């Protein structure tokens, strides 16, 4: 939870932050060039994913490879397009629920014997 | 902008909190899809239906719409009205193309005999991708609304947070598709192995 | 810009209000009405069960009443009464002008109200749902529940659930972003902390429920096979998705009460809360663990030894942070200058009753024991000790505690004590014998029982207890009405409490604080913890009243009604909703 990490800090720094408000709120940005480069990487990973899908020899390790590649795409979009790389105090607000959601998917799969 | 304890605008905080909630919505759909994978007792089955090359194209379209979205936001922040209009419209159009692809796909599956109540794959597939498609549709309406505001010159840099929040929603919908594309389409190749 | 002033009068000003305090009052009044409705349903159930082979109710009516009693009490009484306090108290406790999104807040209220009214209207429109509040598949399939009761359940809870999610999103943003300067997270009053935790539980627990009800709706309306064994579907999936929601829901119901008494007990002990950080972290830990224990509701389904052991162990872990809180409350009272006002009586009552309910809960966490107890009255005894003995007593503590702040008037302390002791007696008479009836094998959800199985005595005592409890509620209502007729005499801080809501007049002015307080201590009113205000008038913006939240919620209500009536009404509802959203978006806020 984003606010928690923020709030646990000493009273002094918090007061400074709240008073600083928007003056202190400088948003670092990736440039448009970075955005385009990321789009290219996303496209390439997608192409690789589809290629892996068609390679018979990789059928046994298809799932782990796909998981890694889609996780990479996920992190790129969330980190750069959604600014989470810069909005550090919003990370917990997303990754907390995401962790619980992922855990529930894995638990449901385990309950239905997926990993046996 | 109102003073906030964290310096983050309320609207942006709201969208991130909402996205957290949406994670659980899609997790429930994905969990159900996975639990019921290969449990259909009558065909047509997923491996007979899923058209990977086709869906790869629409996936690429949706990814590129995310690029258009960040470019639109950047144009609004810079105070570039031409860029704002252009990229917002392009984002919405790419979203519409994706929806068109989904409509074609659903239609094709129904013609192949996969009615909504045909088997478990039908129910889980149509509802999971359908929920996502509904999110895309809401996003398209939202983007077109912003675009009409931009046309009337009412989307200056002071509205950057509004566009940023719409962008967060749009990218999240894209991220969900990254997961669904992998889980529903590509991992179908691992079944039966 | 408006400076303060007073509230506009008239019904229209309440319908279009976006003020958190007025919305809080609306929540309170509505939830009190539904508390009475749920209570009357309970009285019918107890009358039916008073004697063996009784015929007060048919089996059909009994099924509808126990279903609606559960749904009403959980979702339309306890949750919205907690929401009443979230609304009224939280912005005051953190030193804010209002919540982050006042119109969204009004929208949440209308969604809750419409959802509750819609679901209850089923009594008059062909019969209420009769499948239990958990609505297990495949009893809910169109084959076994051909009427519209289950559809009302799905659609009504969709509205109310959406309202809860929207409200929770609003409160998360409010608590993170609208804290007064110096109000760090580790200075937040415990009630605000628990509101924060509960809001996360709501936004994460309700979506799985929404999805499972959508599956059920599609099964019933379009013939999908999600819970249809004949088509390969698995009814257990409903149980999983339902309890992924349902177990966190339990903490959604109890944690606000924990928050209330964590503010009340220090006030009436004249001591700061003992071990504040531990109480906070225990609450967070209870909520977090709450997502990992859902399958303990399903031991009897047969999940296999590994899953059963895992869920059993995680469930037992929850006893630790809960037990820690009990010790913190007791240690807060230890050596304090105790004042046994009504709010304090109810708080101490909660601690005692929750220990009983908690202990029987730990018994259930052991799977072999649970197999003996599941679906018997032992379970009914357990969850009424935590819900009535816990949540309801805690909420009444909040009512007596904050009534002067909300109305400027006091509830009568003598009647309050009578209310408490009658209720304490009544709930123990009602629910304690259920332990024994359950261990003797009396099954839940069964409309009658034959004589000679040893259930008669227990059930008669339970029914007498229910009557006593009902009398206690009547005493409260009398107290409420009498107090509202007295002159407002409450000063700003009648209980000499420590938190910010007591620093402003009772009732608070529409704009809350003349100056945004700057907090320098966890108990600001006890430690000179508010920095002196800067000179000069402070400017603040009062949000305009708006009827768009009502329009959007009304549009969604039409959509839900249309799902039962026909497509044209759905389309009308969608149109109204869209008009409402656009009107809302382009309406000037200030």
Chain-wise SSE layout:
The complex is a heterotrimer of chains A (116), B (193) and C (590).
Chain A: H1 2-8, H2 11-20, H3 32-54, H4 62-81, H5 91-111
Helix pairs in contact in A: 3-4
Chain B: H1 10-35, H2 46-49, H3 52-78, H4 81-111, H5 120-151, H6 160-185
Helix pairs in contact in B: 1-5, 1-6, 3-4, 3-6, 4-5, 5-6
Chain C: H1 11-15, H2 20-49, H3 59-93, H4 102-121, H5 149-177, H6 190-222, H7 235-269, H8 276-289, H9 305-333, H10 342-365, H11 367-373, H12 377-407, H13 413-439, H14 456-484, E1 518-519, E2 530-531, H15 548-565, H16 567-585
Antiparallel strand pairs in C: 1-2
Task: Characterise the protein shown here.
The complex is a heterotrimer of chains A (116), B (193) and C (590). By secondary structure, chain A is an all-alpha fold. Chain A has two domains: 1-28 and 86-116, no CATH class; 31-85. Chain A is built from five helices and no strands. The longest helix of chain A is centred in the middle third of the chain and has 23 residues, at 32-54. Chain B contains six helices and no strands. The longest helix of chain B has 32 residues, at 120-151. Chain B is 76% helix and 0% strand. In chain B, helix 3 (52-78) runs antiparallel to helix 6 (160-185). Chain C has helices spanning 11-15, 20-49, 59-93, 102-121, 149-177, 190-222, 235-269, 276-289, 305-333, 342-365, 367-373, 377-407, 413-439, 456-484, 548-565, 567-585, and strands spanning 518-519, 530-531. Chain C has a two-stranded antiparallel ribbon with strand order 1-2. The chains are: A mainly alpha (116), B mainly alpha (193), C mainly alpha (590). Chains A and B meet through helix 1, helix 2, helix 3, helix 4 and helix 5 of A and helix 1, helix 3 and helix 6 of B.
């Amino acid at each position: 939870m984003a606010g928690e990490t923020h709030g646990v800090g000493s009273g002094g720094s918090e007061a400074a932050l709240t008073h600083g408000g928007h003056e202190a709120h400088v948003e670092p940005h990736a440039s448009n060039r970075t955005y385009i480069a990321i789009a290219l990487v996303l496209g390439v990973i997608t192409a690789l994913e589809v290629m892996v899908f068609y390679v018979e020899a990789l059928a046994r390790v298809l799932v782990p490879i796909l998981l890694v590649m889609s996780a990479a795409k996920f992190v790129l979009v969330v980190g750069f397009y959604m600014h989470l790389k810069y909005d550090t105090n919003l990370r917990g607000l997303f990754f907390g629920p995401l962790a619980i959601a992922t855990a529930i998917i894995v638990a449901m799969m385990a309950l239905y014997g997926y990993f046996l | 902008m109102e003073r906030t304890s964290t310096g983050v605008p309320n609207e942006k905080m709201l969208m991130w909190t909402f996205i957290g909630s949406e994670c659980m919505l899609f997790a429930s759909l994905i969990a159900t899809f996975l639990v019921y994978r290969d449990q259909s007792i009558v065909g047509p089955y997923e491996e007979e239906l899923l058209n990977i090359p086709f869906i790869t194209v629409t996936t690429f379209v949706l990814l590129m719409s995310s690029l258009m979205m960040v470019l639109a936001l950047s144009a609004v922040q810079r105070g570039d009205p031409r860029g704002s209009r252009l990229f917002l419209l392009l984002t919405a159009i790419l979203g519409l193309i994706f929806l068109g692809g989904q409509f074609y796909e659903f239609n094709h599956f129904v013609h192949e005999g996969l009615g909504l109540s045909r088997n478990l794959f039908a129910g889980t597939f149509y509802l999971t991708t359908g929920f996502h498609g509904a999110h895309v549709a809401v996003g398209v309406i939202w983007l077109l609304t912003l675009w009409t505001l931009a046309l009337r010159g009412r989307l200056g840099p002071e509205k950057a947070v509004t566009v940023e929040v719409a962008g967060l929603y749009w990218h999240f919908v894209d991220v969900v598709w990254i997961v669904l594309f992998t889980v529903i389409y590509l991992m179908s190749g691992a079944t039966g192995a | 810009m408006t400076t303060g002033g007073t509230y506009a009068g008239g019904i229209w000003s309440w319908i279009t209000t976006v003020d958190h305090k007025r919305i809080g009052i609306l929540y309170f009044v509505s939830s009190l009405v539904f508390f009475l409705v749920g209570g009357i349903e309970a009285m019918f159930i107890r009358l039916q069960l008073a004697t063996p082979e009784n015929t007060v109710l048919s089996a059909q009516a009994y099924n509808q009443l126990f279903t609606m009693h559960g749904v009403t009490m959980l979702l339309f009484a306890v949750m919205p009464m907690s929401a009443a306090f979230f609304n009224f108290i939280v912005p005051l406790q953190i030193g804010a002008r209002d919540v982050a999104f006042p119109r969204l807040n009004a929208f949440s209220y209308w969604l809750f109200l419409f959802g509750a009214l819609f679901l209850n209207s089923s009594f008059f429109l062909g019969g209420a749902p009769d499948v239990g509040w958990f609505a297990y598949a495949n009893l809910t399939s169109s084959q076994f529940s051909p009427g519209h009761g289950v559809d009302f359940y799905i659609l009504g809870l969709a509205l109310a659930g959406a309202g809860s999610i929207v409200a929770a999103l609003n409160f998360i943003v409010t608590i993170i972003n609208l804290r007064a300067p110096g109000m760090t997270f580790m200075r937040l009053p415990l009630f605000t902390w628990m509101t924060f935790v509960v809001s996360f539980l709501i936004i994460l627990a309700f979506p799985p429920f929404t999805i499972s009800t959508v599956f059920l709706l599609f099964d019933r309306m379009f013939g999908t096979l999600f819970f249809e064994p004949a088509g390969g579907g698995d009814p257990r999936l409903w149980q999983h998705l339902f309890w992924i929601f349902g177990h966190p829901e339990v903490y959604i119901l109890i944690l606000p009460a924990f928050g209330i008494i964590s503010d009340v007990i220090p006030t009436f002990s004249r001591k700061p809360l003992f071990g504040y950080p531990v109480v906070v972290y225990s609450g967070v830990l209870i909520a977090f663990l709450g997502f990992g224990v859902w399958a303990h509701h399903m031991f009897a389904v047969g999940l296999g030894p590994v899953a059963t052991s895992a869920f059993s162990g995680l469930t037992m872990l929850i006893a630790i942070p809960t037990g820690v809180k009990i010790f913190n409350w007791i240690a807060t009272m230890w050596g304090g200058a105790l004042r046994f006002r009504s709010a304090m009586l109810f708080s101490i009552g909660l601690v005692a009753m929750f220990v009983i309910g908690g202990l029987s809960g730990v018994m259930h966490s052991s799977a072999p024991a649970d197999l003996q107890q599941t679906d018997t009255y032992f379970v009914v005894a357990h969850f009424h000790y935590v819900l009535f003995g816990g949540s309801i007593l805690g909420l009444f503590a909040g009512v007596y505690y904050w009534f002067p702040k909300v109305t400027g008037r006091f509830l009568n302390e003598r009647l309050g004590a009578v209310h408490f002791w009658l209720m304490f007696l009544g709930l123990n008479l009602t629910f304690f014998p259920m332990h024994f009836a359950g261990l003797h094998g009396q099954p839940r959800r069964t409309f009658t029982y034959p004589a000679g199985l040893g259930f008669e005595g227990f059930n008669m005592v339970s029914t007498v207890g229910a009557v006593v409890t009902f009398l206690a509620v009547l005493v409260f209502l009398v107290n409420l009405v009498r107090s509202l007729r007295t002159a407002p005499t409450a000063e700003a801080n009648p209980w000499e409490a420590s938190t910010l809501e007591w620093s402003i007049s009772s009732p608070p002015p529409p704009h809350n604080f003349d100056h945004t307080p700057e907090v320098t201590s966890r108990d600001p009113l006890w430690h000179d913890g508010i920095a002196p205000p800067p000179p000069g008038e402070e400017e603040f913006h009062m949000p305009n009243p708006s009827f768009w939240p009502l329009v959007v919620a009304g549009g969604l209500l039409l959509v839900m009604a249309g799902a039962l009536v026909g497509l044209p009404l759905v389309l009308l509802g969608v149109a109204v909703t869209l008009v409402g959203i656009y009107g809302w978006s382009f309406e000037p806020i200030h």
